[in-house]
Amino acid sequence: MAIRQIRVVPDPILRTPCDEITTITPAIERLVTDLLETVNDPGRAGLSANQIGVGLRAFSYNIEGKIGYVLNPVLEETSGEQYGDEGCLSVPGLWYKTRRADYARVTGIDLEGKRVVLEGKGLMGRMLQHECDHLDGHVYLDRLEKEERREALRLMRSR
């Protein structure tokens, strides 16, 4: 049970699709506790397991005072469009306007194996898509226009 260190680009785990959780074990329970404790910090909206070095499909969230998690999330539905600032704990200090669906719905399970449905618009919708991207081995920079992506990568290399 700990606040875990955040992995940053170019760490290869951030580019590796995460494995499905097949059995709820004490290690998975500890992972969820660590995800919840690590996301419970001002300014953090979501955190995927691979951002703390674990290649399993799980993420936590902290949106408008609601903190939770989902295991084996699947992005099932999106609609509408939003274009706004997006940042990432694994890409510290860089914020870029990013195009996302306005609404998103994710399904998964909790630690008891019960079905979980998370959905929302605006920030919640953006977070759901952002964290599912992480679990598929993508970071938000992948969604930027070519020139912005090139600039972001240049800035990261110069640090």
TrEMBL record:
SUPFAM superfamilies in UniProt: Peptide deformylase
Which InterPro entries does the protein's record reference?
Peptide_deformylase (IPR023635), Peptide_deformylase_sf (IPR036821)
Cofactor list: Fe(2+)
The top EC class is: hydrolase
Q: Keyword Protein biosynthesis, does the record have it?
A: yes
Q: Which GO terms describe its biological process?
A: translation
- Cofactor details (free text): Binds 1 Fe(2+) ion.
Q: Please write the reaction equations for the catalytic activity of this protein.
A: N-terminal N-formyl-L-methionyl-[peptide] + H2O = N-terminal L-methionyl-[peptide] + formate
What does the sequence similarity comment in the record state about its family? Belongs to the polypeptide deformylase family.
Q: What protein am I looking at? A: Peptide deformylase
**Organism of this sequence:** Bifidobacterium tissieri
The UniProt gene name for this protein comes to def
